[in-house]
Amino acid sequence: SHMPDGTPGQSFKFTVLETLDRIKEEFQFLQAQYHSLKLECEKLASEKTEMQRHYIMYYEMSYGLNIEMHKQAEIVKRLSAICAQIIPFLSQEQQQLQHLSHHTAGIPLTPHPSGLALGGGSGLLALTGALGVSAHLTGKDERNHLDAEHLRGVFGGGGGGGALRSPLSMTPASYPAHFGVVSHAGLNGELASPGSFGGSLTLSPQISTAASAYTRSPMVAYESRSHLRPSGLSSSLPGSSGGKPAYSFHVSADGQMQPVPFPPDALLGPGIPRHARQIHTLSHGEVVCAVTISTSTRHVYTGGKGCVKVWDISQPGSKSPMAQLDCLNRDNYIRSCKLLPDGRTLIVGGEASTLSIWDLATPTPRIKAELTSSAPACYALAISPDNKVCFSCCSDGNIVVWDLHNQTLVRQFQGHTDGASCIDISNDGTKLWTGGLDNTVRCWDLREGRQLQQHDFTSQIFSLGYCPTGEWLAVGMESSNVEVLHVSKPDKYQLHLHESCVLSLKFAYCGKWFVSTGKDNLLNAWRTPYGASIFQSKESSSVLSCDVSPDDKYIVTGSGDKKATVYEVVY
């Protein structure tokens, strides 16, 4: 009699378990489906940003070509007028020849019928085709994410010899003779083009900087061509900087990027350099990771492996160091050296747990104190405006605060989760800005000793500088961007002229301009804050460090080529 009761109970239990299993399977199936959709979504998102990147690039190119066509049309008009005036003076025979040659001209020099509307791909191809130019493009492929095949499809399609060769891999001699080499290729983003076209294709600076490698001897500072710009052209084209495609973008709080239209005083006016002239080469003998110049602008200090060398740059002529300060261990690199303004004390930090403080006032410089912390290395140093405190960026992410008078550790700022790489102090001495290998820039309150702000980026931070006149913080990225942040508002500027990581950055003391240096051998001078390019200098190797003299008259750079270079800033 118990059986009938038991069976339904059993089957009921069974169905519950079955149902649970089914629900579980269903759930797992949904989870898998959700996961695959999520992956799909991420893929689409990355494709979208890719497309946007390409779009900006093509926009820049067509924009540059448009400007070029305008210029060419003007030139053609003038030449036609001149021809019309000259032809009547020629003999009958020559006039007939002239007439014939006009009919057989193969290259249409007037603007192409398709009008090269912005983004007009057919115009781009037709132009390439008409000129028979093989578009010599180069660029860090992984940066632009454009493989050669893809570009060949876009540019080579109509262009006969659309082979993509990096100008760096070609010797200048292998160029056909009719290639007119434009001397400011790197600066104005122009590439050499056939003489028959008489002008130059304007491509984005990211793509063409490499072209500058053979247009001038590597160590010449490029002069800004502001004085050569046709005023009518630049004023009539918004965001135009004399034909160079947009490299400076304003990024609003919601992430919208807009090319910056530079104001008329961007490259003119008091306190804005015209260019920089190289005046000294200091052969240090090891890679120069740190440089500083004295307030008197007489002495330069170069930090290399195991020592700092002191140079007198007040006299012209070849240089040998006037002193050598042996610090750290012989094989460890100096990463930062800072002078107190009176020029009597030098603080040196690097690949060691100890900072050394040098007394330079004695007949032979000597170490007067050593400050030891728990971190194995110091990446950067800063000194407070009152010269009482020194800040050390440590490889463990801490910022150590030292009392210079008593040589004691006062406090540590903890927050960076990876090495702290760079540091600067606000002009009023109340805030500290630090950048880290943890992709963050942080702001600290010096009086209360706490973190006030944090900016997160997608790239490691290698260098930063606070504008001496306030408001702006310039940051050099591993990703090759320079970003200029407003210290209280969310908007910022993003500058794209470096081809590789930005290794050092320093503001001029007047605050109107700053310089950045990179692994791409470039020294760039920018206008604060929107980043109009003031001048550019190509060195022979990575530029690891830089400093600007307190009177803004000299720039010193330290190079992977085991030397330092002193530039005179020309106004």
From TrEMBL:
What is the protein's given name? TLE family member 2, transcriptional corepressor b
Keywords assigned by UniProt?
Answer: Coiled coil, Nucleus, Repeat, WD repeat
Give start and end of each Groucho/TLE N-terminal Q-rich domain.
Answer: 12-96
WD repeat windows:
371-412, 413-454
Q: Which SMART domains match?
A: WD40
Gene3D superfamilies tied to this protein: YVTN repeat-like/Quinoprotein amine dehydrogenase (2.130.10.10)
**Where do the TM regions start and end?**
none
One Pfam assignment: TLE_N
Give one GO term, molecular function aspect. Answer: transcription corepressor activity
Q: Which SUPFAM superfamilies match?
A: WD40 repeat-like
CC annotations in GO: nucleus; transcription regulator complex
A single Gene Ontology biological process assigned to it is: negative regulation of canonical Wnt signaling pathway
**Species name:** Pygocentrus nattereri
Family listed: Belongs to the WD repeat Groucho/TLE family.
UniProt function note: Transcriptional corepressor that binds to a number of transcription factors. Inhibits the transcriptional activation mediated by CTNNB1 and TCF family members in Wnt signaling. The effects of full-length TLE family members may be modulated by association with dominant-negative AES.
Q: Where in the cell is it found?
A: Nucleus
In terms of superkingdom, the source organism counts as Eukaryota
Q: Locate the coiled-coil region(s) and give their ranges.
A: 20-47
